[in-house]
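Aim 2 progress update. The chain analyzed this quarter is reproduced below.
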Amino acid sequence: MIEDDPKPERRRMVRPPSGGTAAGRGLGTQIKTADKKSMSSQQWIKRQLADPWSERARAEGWRSRAAFKFLEIDDRFNLVKKGSRVIDLGAAPGGWVQVCVNRGAGAVVGVDLLPIEPIRGAELVQADFTDPGVDDQLIELLGGAPDLVLSDMAHNTVGHRQTDHLKIIALIEIAAAFAIRTLKPGGAFVTKNFQGGDAGGVLADLRANFEEVKYVKPNASRKGSSEVYLVALNRL
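Predicted structure tokens:
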């Protein structure tokens, strides 16, 4: 396992995805130029347009369908409390940040490799979270230790299953280590994972530092997706 390496190489997020913008990953632009895009890009656009969660997100003013994933998680666990401080890792295009602001968080800071269109009530940073000093910058912008750390970070897949798996686990480890180090007692942590992914080392760390750790598969996750979320409650 990666965590057993006595001198692990510093793990970095991959380069920003090519194309797209913070506002819906460039959906508006891609629709207009779909005839110039690859077949896979055109299929992605068609899937987005046909997806009821994406349609609902557009109708309700959410940046992305991912907002509904976090809305469901927050409804279940009551994570965003009035006045709470929240850090969102991998925040673009900003759906989770919107939810936190709308639900009464006192301070919200989001970071992503991609630019994020401004959201009133939030501080948004375009940076590589794994770069030295970025984590401290987020805490400074937040004004103190967070009550909630969120991570919907993802990586560019390379098509090699083992390599992609290691990158997934590396991002979870990075986010979990940050949450464990910075959260207030009683705080919570949410991170993306994938079914079948070997996150045993991360789970052990979370269970040692939180009262409860739950797996959640939101209804807004695509049916064919192996995506799940780890929810760690009540930082010890």
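Residues 1-35 have pLDDT under 50 and may be disordered. The CA atoms of residues 15 and 208 lie 32 Å apart. These observations will guide the mutagenesis experiments scheduled for the next reporting period.
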